[in-house]
Amino acid sequence: MAIEAVLFDFSGTLFRLEPDETWADMVGADNKPLDRSQQAAILDRMTTPVGHGAVFDAAGRLAWERRDLDPAMHRMAYYEVLRQAGVPTSALIEQLYDWMLDPLAWTPYPDTDAVLKVLAAQGIPVAVVSNIAFDIRPAFAANGWDRLVAAHTLSFEVGAVKPDPRIFRAAVEQLGVRPESALMVGDSAEADGGAVAAGCGFALVDPLPTVERAEGLLEVLRRHELA
């Protein structure tokens, strides 16, 4: 069946959270600037779609399980994740957490612009389907892409978290297409691959740093004869 709509994950797919100039002033427990391996470990804890690498008590486990449904739970869970990742002070944890929640801090992949425009030119609607507890629409508006995204299906707004088929069904309903005519593109076979249970197709991309993945999204479109 021809693809009539494309669903994209946000983190690791269209955008990536990467260190910026503010990281130069951040220091670890040894009072020395965070090196690249430390930065990578912290970012991995902040953005990995499944797993957490932390040990939680009962309240913490509940917060982690509900983090993408409730902003307060999200803050509680990631505060503990960052603490256990070795971020040495509460002030720095707050700084990192607030930075993560700033949609304008996220870096788009090099081909995000081209992919959204290629699909728009063909009249193929796009939805962004994300497990997230904050509004990412400003990231698209800042790049002039808000008009290219027909729907933002965000877990904390719809009350379902990937891989739950309900979130994918909500997305295709917003776009007005059948699940079997939609393709989900994401960086997690476990989370984004849940689209298959909803009847959608699925394509996996590697959540590499943006400088290392210039055309990962375009390659997906080419494989599906959309570019």
Automatic annotation (TrEMBL):
Extract the NCBIfam families matched here. HAD-SF-IA-v1, HAD-SF-IA-v2, HAD-SF-IA-v3
SUPFAM superfamilies given for it? HAD-like
Which key words tag this protein in UniProt? Answer: Hydrolase
GO MF term (any one) = hydrolase activity
Per its record, how is this protein called by name?
HAD-IA family hydrolase
Q: Which domain of life is it from?
A: Bacteria
InterPro entries, sorted: HAD-like_sf (IPR036412), HAD-SF_hydro_IA (IPR006439), HAD_sf (IPR023214)
Annotated source species: Nocardia vinacea
Q: Does the record bear Hydrolase in its keywords?
A: yes
